[in-house]
Amino acid sequence: DIHGGGRDLLFPHHECEAAQSVCANGPGTFAKHWIHNGFINVDDEKMSKSLNNFFTLRDVFEKYDPKVVRFMFLQTQYRNPINFSDKLLDQAKAGLERIHEFVRKLDFGKVDDSKDEPYEDIYLKEIDDCREKFDSSMDDDFNTSSALDFSMLKGVVMEAEARGVRTRAFLDKVKAFVADIDQVLGVIIPDETDLDSDIEALIAEREEARKNKDFATSDRIRDELKDRGIDLDDTPDGTIWKKV
């Protein structure tokens, strides 16, 4: 169905492949869709061994998480060139962390189904609008840069929270949409495995200390967890943890 490669292969390589296939097997037998990606540049020059500016993903993964690298590529529509640099990767890392922070907070959101919520249907519809925008972006020649724009979804969630909309139906719909995006792009949901039981116990102990206004114990446990690679964020809905 799909055949692709660098845009420099469009002619004569791919045109020759198509011609040979038609001659051997008849028209319409080779590929239905052709995808030609832009070049990866380094300092505005095409990456190549001859220019001695060539490196592998294995080299990059020694410094950056693979999801950060994938996110960097997804931020550019595949037909466009990328000027590869550590600065671009650092920007991608920061941008992906903002998305992950948003996703983590969804898991810690408090549910309130205690009352009829007049605005619920409005925000449920707006989540549908977000999904439609995502689908439209992907249908637009795999425009992943547009598909990754989370500002609309974040705006809906923030406005809903400001109006007190915390129903199970709303939060579940947001989470389902986020999970569906991750199924397509593979970078949205952070890779965070379950914590060790002793770390979970420390987090619970700190929560109890905060309730009792024992801030010295709370700060001590926070510092201990940070030394063990766990960062805590105290929010109105509870404490959110992440690995650093």
Outline the structure in words.
By secondary structure, this protein is α/β, with parallel strands linked by helices. It folds into three domains: 1-37, no CATH class; 49-191, Isoleucyl-tRNA Synthetase, Domain 1 (Orthogonal Bundle), CATH 1.10.730; 197-243. The chain is built from ten helices and seven strands. The strands form three sheets. The protein has a three-stranded mixed sheet with strand order 4-3-5. Strands 1-2 form a two-stranded parallel ribbon. It has a two-stranded antiparallel ribbon with strand order 6-7. Helix 3 (66-74) packs across helix 4, helix 5 packs parallel to helix 8 and helix 9 (197-211) packs antiparallel against helix 10. The model has no long low-confidence stretch (mean pLDDT 90).
Write the layout of secondary structure elements.
Layout: E1 2-6, H1 10-25, E2 33-37, E3 40-42, E4 45-46, H2 57-61, H3 66-74, E5 82-84, H4 86-108, H5 120-139, H6 144-147, H7 151-162, H8 168-185, H9 197-211, H10 215-227, E6 230-235, E7 238-243
Parallel strand pairs: 1-2, 3-5
Antiparallel strand pairs: 3-4, 6-7
Helix pairs in contact: 3-4, 5-7, 5-8, 9-10
